[in-house]
From TrEMBL, chain B:
Organism: Nocardioides hwasunensis
Gene3D superfamilies reported in the protein's UniProt record: MetI-like (1.10.3720.10)
Membrane-protein topology: Multi-pass membrane protein
Function: Part of the binding-protein-dependent transport system for phosphate; probably responsible for the translocation of the substrate across the membrane.
SUPFAM superfamilies on file: MetI-like
Taxonomic lineage from the root: Bacteria, Bacillati, Actinomycetota, Actinomycetes, Propionibacteriales
Protein name: Phosphate transport system permease protein PstA
Length: 338, 393
């Protein structure tokens, strides 16, 4: 005997209505979404608040000093003369020296790791570069101050003697003195730049290596199969492919170099003069200015320091954003996070 | 086809068809195998190594005997230049121009990498070399500097207070940044929407904030405006402000690479979005998140400038983060390095060694945490395949 199910009279007999779909979260999901949104908003307020606070704090300073804040080189709050021209020039020259050392070395190291190193030690080398990036800046500062600075001063003297006719290599001292005056050659933007280079080098190198490693192997093999030497392959495939990574990595490093504080503070002799002579003693940077002057600052001076910090932040922001855009638009599409 | 026919007619037109026999040219150099990209042959290796050894010898003669250029720096520079010249000479004896360029570039690239390696090695060795002496005394790691003068011997005083201070400050900073950072990353990747784009833009922009400016911000707001004393808590806040964008961004990158298929599978099985995030996305990304956190901590532990502005310097143990000045490792090192007393400088180097070891340990932990996922998928398979091919051959 088979029992046939009787028609349930309760169910509607017409066309079945479709189940209602809703993108709206319910229950635990709503709590999750709300709390995630809250966290996001909190972080937005905190981080965005810093930028807004800096901008808001720099209004009174900019109103008071106007454009002269950017053209005045002295920093003498007691006589009401404030300006960041000298520290900006110092910041840029330190970062420039750092990039002059860091860029070629980072490029060569990245090429070595991605193309020349034996496969067995490649991952070790990558870890070493990452470890180098993790070494605190204070340690590079001590390395630069105690170990490198005497040698850097001797090298500065040599540069001065042989290339002194180039304005940036001239020093206000006698290059051919019987006993050279070492104190004229230490604490310069050149010495600080070397220590900062050590800090930014691993960062640039990591970005470059990452982009190089994403070169399509087919194109590399095609170049080699056509008879290219290793360098021919690098020149025709790897470098064009990684151009975005090279530029972007360098600019990321530059952004870091502009904001570096402790190593610079340890090495330089503060001096508030616009000085294009990078080998000569005495320079300053925005970050060193803040670190040196915050303690005895009045409210107005604090606002001026915050303005200097804001200017530095805007510069690094522009540099970093450009770098991120260049790396993202390069053919490799590699991330900028090292 | 036509060419063969033409050639056939041409040859038939000739009175005496001859066959061209290749003649051995006794004066020509012996044929060389094209340089292969695999393992270098013995001759190639001899050319490279020999060139650099010869260059070293020549550089020694030039700098130490012929010209007044004493010192190791000149020797190394001359060695590099002469090594490249020697490579050109030895390679051009057998190779073409491209081979010469290839060899020279290989020399330049390798020496560039060696310079970087030497710089890293010199940093580590120099710091350890200058700071090993205080580390021989156990009290250096557990004592504080209260009542210890700059010229007291190394068996009194230590950096225990700085280590404790660093740990407390970092602990607070991590307790603040970890939930906020990962929460923001979850919001940006899992919830999304137009607001998330705004948050991501701002967070990415704030990674550009120089650490000194973060310190100055906390100093202005917390210490000057709100009248909070200089303390470990203020330092922790400065570190948090600096670390938050870094950790949020790194976690965002990690969460974004979680395969979308996993999420869809979980949702298709009927899990809610919250369960998907908690049971699928976050566990999948756990190694990456741990790495992001540890690298953020490694960055924070060595950051001096925010601490310099906000914490003040104490020479004794301070465990209450809201109770006045507190020392930390980077600050101790900075103050020591600026001191004119040689003993202080030596203590600073010893503290720098401790800091270096700490960063190294954090770094190794980060690597070990990040490794398993990769090792499970790739390494074993490759080794078994390699073994099989080795057995077959």
């Amino acid at each position: 005997m088979t029992t046939l199910p009787a028609q349930d009279s309760v169910l509607p007999t017409g066309r079945p209505t479709p189940r209602r779909l809703s993108r709206k979260a319910t229950g635990a999901d709503r709590v999750f979404e709300l709390s995630a949104r809250t966290v996001g908003a909190t972080v937005l307020v905190v981080t965005g608040g810093i930028g807004a606070f800096l901008a808001w704090q720099s209004v009174p300073t900019l109103e008071r000093y106007g454009w002269s804040f950017f053209t005045e080189s002295a920093w003498q709050p007691e006589s009401d003369v404030l300006g960041i021209a000298a520290v900006l020039v110092g910041t840029v020259s330190i970062a420039g020296v750092a990039m002059a050392f860091a860029f070629p070395l980072a490029l060569l190291t990245a090429l070595f790791i991605s193309e020349y190193a034996p496969a067995g030690i490649k991952s070790t080398l990558v870890s070493l570069v990452d470890l180098m990036a993790a070494v605190p800046s204070i340690i590079y500062g001590m390395w630069g101050y105690f170990l490198v600075m005497p040698h850097a001063a001797a090298f500065s003297l040599w540069l001065h003697q042989n290339l002194g006719w180039i304005p940036i290599f001239s020093v206000d001292a006698d290059p051919d003195a019987a006993v050279w005056d070492q104190s004229r050659y230490i604490g310069s933007a050149f010495c600080a730049g070397i220590a900062v280079a050590m800090m930014v080098l691993p960062m640039s190198c990591a970005v470059m290596r990452q982009v190089f490693s994403q070169t399509p192997p087919g194109e590399k093999e095609a170049a080699l199969a056509l008879g290219a030497t290793r360098w021919g392959m690098i020149r025709s495939v790897v470098l064009p492919f990684g151009r975005g990574g090279i530029i972007g990595g360098t600019m990321l490093g530059l952004g870091r170099a502009l904001g570096e504080t402790i190593a610079v503070l340890l090495i330089i002799s503060p001096d508030f003069v616009i000085k294009p002579r990078i080998l000569e003693v005495g320079t300053s940077s925005v970050s060193a200015l803040i670190a040196g002057r915050f303690g005895d600052a009045s409210a107005a001076q604090l606002s001026a320091l915050l303005t200097a910090g804001f200017v530095l932040f805007v510069i690094t922001l522009i540099v970093n954003t450009l770098a991120a855009m260049i790396v993202a638009r390069s053919r490799s599409g590699a991330g900028t996070d090292a | 086809m036509t060419t063969i026919q033409q050639r056939a007619t041409a040859s038939s037109a000739k009175p005496t068809p001859t066959t061209h026999l290749p003649q051995r040219d006794l004066d020509a150099p012996p044929p060389l195998a094209r340089p292969s990209l695999g393992k270098p042959t013995a001759e190639e290796r001899f050319t490279v190594v020999g060139a650099w050894v010869a260059a070293l010898a020549l550089a020694w003669v030039v700098t130490q005997r012929l010209m007044p250029l004493g010192g190791p720096a000149w020797l190394l520079v001359t060695w590099l230049v002469l090594g490249l010249v020697m490579s050109v000479v030895t390679t051009s004896m057998t190779g073409r121009r491209v081979d010469v360029v290839d060899r020279v570039v290989a020399g330049i690239v390798t020496s560039g990498a060696l310079v970087v390696g030497a710089a890293l090695l010199s940093t580590v060795v120099f710091v350890v070399y200058r700071g090993w002496e205080p580390l021989l005394h156990l009290n250096f790691l557990v004592d504080d500097m209260a009542g210890v003068g700059p010229r007291d011997p190394f068996d009194t005083g230590g950096i225990g207070h700085a280590i404790v201070g660093s740990a407390i400050q970092l602990g607070i900073a991590v307790a603040v940044t970890l939930p906020l950072g990962i929460g923001t990353a979850v919001f940006m990747t899992e919830v999304g929407g137009r607001f998330a784009v705004v948050v991501r833009t701002i967070v990415e922009a704030m990674t550009a904030l120089p650490s000194i400016v973060a310190g100055l911000f906390v100093y202005t707001v917390l210490i000057v405006a709100l009248g909070f004393p200089r303390s470990g808590f203020a330092a922790a806040m400065a570190l948090s402000v600096m670390m938050l964008p870094i950790i949020a961004r790194a976690a965002d990158v990690v969460l974004r690479v979680v395969p979308g298929g996993l999420r869809e599978a979980s949702l298709a099985l009927g899990a809610s979005r919250w369960r998907t995030v908690w049971h699928v996305v976050l566990p999948t990304a756990r190694p990456g998140l741990a790495t992001a956190l540890i690298l953020g901590v490694a960055r924070g532990v060595g950051e001096t400038s925010p601490v310099l502005l906000t914490s003040g310097v104490a020479t004794f143990f301070v465990t209450n983060p809201t109770d006045g000045v507190m020392n930390s490792l980077p600050l101790f090192i900075f103050k020591g390095a600026r001191s004119p007393e040689p003993m202080d400088i030596e203590r600073a180097f010893a503290a720098a060694t401790v800091l270096l070891v700490l960063v190294l340990v954090l770094f190794v932990i980060a690597r070990l945490v990040a490794r398993p996922a990769r090792a499970r998928t790739r390494r074993p398979r490759r080794t078994t395949r390699a073994k099989r091919t080795a057995e077959e051959s």
